[in-house]
Predict the structure.
Amino acid sequence: MSLYGGVDLGGTKIQTVVVDGDGAKVVGKARAATPSAGGPPAVVEAIEQAVRAAAAQAGIDTRELAGLGVGAPGEVDPASGTLLRATNLAGWTKPFALGPALTERLGPPTALGNDVDVATLAEHELGAGRGVESLLGVFWGTGVGGALILDGRLWRGRGGAGEIGHMVVRLGGARCPCGRRGCLEAYAGRRAMELKALREVERGRESTLFEIMRERGRETLASSVWARALEEGDGLARHLIDRAVRALGAGIASAINLLDLELVLIGGGLGTRFGRPMAARIAEAMSPHLFNDGRPPEVRVAELGDLGGSIGATLISRRAVH
Amino acid sequence: MSLYGGVDLGGTKIQTVVVDGDGAKVVGKARAATPSAGGPPAVVEAIEQAVRAAAAQAGIDTRELAGLGVGAPGEVDPASGTLLRATNLAGWTKPFALGPALTERLGPPTALGNDVDVATLAEHELGAGRGVESLLGVFWGTGVGGALILDGRLWRGRGGAGEIGHMVVRLGGARCPCGRRGCLEAYAGRRAMELKALREVERGRESTLFEIMRERGRETLASSVWARALEEGDGLARHLIDRAVRALGAGIASAINLLDLELVLIGGGLGTRFGRPMAARIAEAMSPHLFNDGRPPEVRVAELGDLGGSIGATLISRRAVH
């Protein structure tokens, strides 16, 4: 039976899987930190090692994979396997042909897709989005990514669709890590929330957020740090999460007002960590902004969790090979 | 040759046309004010008279029309010809079967669609949207309506898509005529702009807007009133139009960030009145918010003008009949 490899290349970590040819049975997996320096060559090296580790766990050499798929955090050109831009990857300052570089090192043909697109495809085919024809995937993590399934198929527009994190929720509002003002991500992205928390603490506001971070040996305010601070009743954490949820509610409701979709899927590091209770809060925050308020879309949590992106990457690989 | 009738039912006026079966040749037209009291029966009566007038101009009886189409300002059920909700029509407090009522009075089978959808269809087939596969129609008038062409076809979602006017551009911002806060329409809809102008003048701000309105014998700040006030350099008019353009820029850019479309079409009473120079200003206001800022969509003015909606209505009639 054919085996396929999948890579979820994230801003902080790389997750790889090897799955069987029928679909979702994971027979090997590995994880690595995304290099914070060294640009594309360092990233290629890190992916190579993580794919080799997953293949070894599956008991094969990477050359035996029928195909490899990569979900990457930025704009891709699927035809050439090029990652055109990736603002969340250090040193990715110009287009780089990631697919061909991996094929050269690992053997199998490599399909490249956007990370949020492939995670959403996976949820639609194998996870919480089965059975619907239209959905919005919202990946709430370092940034806020989005992807659309319309009429059962991924909608990419001219190639750059899905940037829900950069929908404007507050004209003239907070500065976003992307440099613009008032984006959803400026309020709800983990990176933006961390910068805001840091400024507040520097101004003298009390919070245990950074103590929890250090206790856990983390260098950033990871999802688990936010979750712990909320459990401890930290006022700043609660304030910033409330603010993020309001922004998510407004941005997602705006997307629904425009597209009138059946389902909203909440995934990503923070989305998965906080789970159903937070999805319910996001649905509540959408409610005052929904124009068709008698008929809200369903809001569900992504089911495939941390492996969703890498499993989705195997789906694009399988399509490319068959 | 078959002739088709089309009705553009707007919040302030009713435009009717009779066109030849091949498409866009208008052989009769008429216009009437939308009744501001009397609910659905009064609207049916007014439409009946305006269709009869257009048919008379074309030299036929309405029973000779091969079909009649209506674009209505609200949510429709095309299958039953029912206008479910229409917040801009006085007294339309519950669903009313507009299509069957018109067929009974006028003769031909009647197809019902959303007004912005049919105007956008018309632009896509016969106007400024010819030749593209994806576009957003923005109808800037009493309210701010929207419609989407994706992969060459109208996207309606679950029936209520296109509500770009109720995308949130400023969380916690201005009150919208719909009752919500921070909607695009709260800043850019003609009705909301008029209410804001009134409040400002009542507070003592100087403006010639309402004098121009009275001089022109109008009861509302019509598009022509705004245009005249801008020509005269009225400060309040300039301020409110600037504010509207900023909101339009943010809302449309948000839609583009989500969908990455080829083209934005600006229509509606204000959009058509202000034409290309204002479309260029809207494109400029979108620019700081576009995530893929090196590849903005084209922004064009709708070409079919005042007749676009009614001609679009004949298109849905033709499809329903054939």
Summary: The first helix of chain A runs from residue 39 to 58. Chain A touches chain B through 46 residues (CB under 8 Å). Chain A has two domains: 3-120+307-321, 131-303.
